Fold:
Amino acid sequence: MGGRNDHHVDDVRAVVAAHLPGHRAGTVVRSGAGQDNVAYEVDGELIVRFGLQDDPAERAARVEHESRLLAAVAEMSPLPVPEPMFTDPGRGCLAYAKLPGLPLLRLPGPAREAYGPSVAAALGGLLTALHTVPAERLAGLVERDDFPPEEWLREAAETYETVSRRVPAAHRPAVEEFLAAPPPAGGWEPVFSHNDLGVEHVLVDPATGRVTGVIDWGDAAITDPAYDFGLLYRDLGPSALDAAVGGYRGGAEPASLRERAVFYARCGALEDLAYGLEPGQEAYADKSVVAMTWLFPVQP
Structure:
């Protein structure tokens, strides 16, 4: 196998045959792709994922690292997470049993709104479990992601220059006021967290909204405990933030946690809007525009 984006159905069948000799890969369907990986679903029960990094050594290192990380996360998470069935570092490949459910991003907006508080409450429990694990236990598996708020705000301002045409005119004054205001104070105690807990990485039963799994732990880090709360607020709204923080039993002070969560949500919405302008990623732009209603309310 070569570099980026050149994986095919035959590659998937070959790697499954090599590692699961008794498993005959019947149906192979490309199930998704992001900036770092492309994933295939095999027979509706197995996810086979390939890294998209150009450097084979980097692809191999990422696979080995994520396999160790997922094993550690599975021990601490109250919610299902992917557990590797096999890895093939030479191919940049990681495979795990498919978790049930659909990404919350793929549900219609009204369903996301209805399920938001209960989903967020379950994720607040997950964040409690992660944030109360001593960070030094994960020091060899994850890095620190602790950019100061000033850096977040600077990048958000740069992003806004590229996406302002997609921000509804009524919300632009609030966005620009946010970008001109000082960021929240730092001084938080770093914790281990998923660090990318958006609705694309939360699986739910579409009939009930029950959380059936949390996927894509590749960005997990020692970071601000408010960050993942900010993504829940960005994607699911104020009542979801209330539910998540209300059930949270970590060490962060609630008022400061909320303030920083709102800050990250606003920065993250602009970032997601920019990503949603890329071909095939319109869902991210659509949800970001909807979120402007609570993130950047129309000023009187």
